[in-house]
Structures are given as C-alpha cells and as structure tokens.
C-alpha cells in the first residue's frame, strides 16, 4: 500500500494474498506463494519496483532470518490468599 501511496497511485483494488504450500512428507510449510493484485490501470513500469518492494517486506525478512527462541520454564508461584 505504501508503495502506491508514495507514488500517488490508486490503492482501490490493491490486494495481497499469501498461500502456504506444505511439503507432503514433512507437513511443514515449504513455500509461501505471494500474489499481489494491482489496481486497475496500474502502470506496467512499476511492476518490477513493486516486486522489489515486496522482497524487502519486514515479515519476509523475519521468516528468512528468524529470531532466536528462548524458552524459560518456571514453577508456578503459590496463589496469594487474601488477608483476613
């Protein structure tokens, strides 16, 4: 959306769909297909720049370079009883 807004292009009809494709053996997502629907009359000269903009998406970067996971396990604390 920001790509279009920065170029004063209409965002009416702009859409994005992500389709996860699973590996049949591992049942894990192997591919994420990204479909960008451009607005009617979207200039062809912006198709490649739009593709580059999608490639720089923060969500995509996090998937390609995932964060570390830290697991902390703690015993439950006894519930505090109200003062009588």
Provide a descriptive summary of the structure in words.
There is one protein chain. The protein contains three helices and two strands, in the order αββαα. With 84 residues, the protein is an alpha+beta fold. The N and C termini lie far apart (59 Å).
Tell me the layout of helices and strands.
Layout: H1 2-6, E1 15-22, E2 29-37, H2 47-55, H3 58-64
The order of strands across the largest sheet is: 1-2
Strand content: 15-25%
Q: Which term fits the overall shape?
A: elongated
Distance between the termini: 59 Å
> Structural class, judged by helices and strands?
alpha+beta
Summarize the structure.
This protein is an alpha+beta fold and 84 residues long. It has helices at residues 2-6, 47-55, 58-64; strands at 15-22, 29-37. The longest helix has 9 residues, at 47-55.
From the structure above, extract its key features:
single chain, 84 residues, alpha+beta, two-stranded antiparallel ribbon, 3 helices, elongated
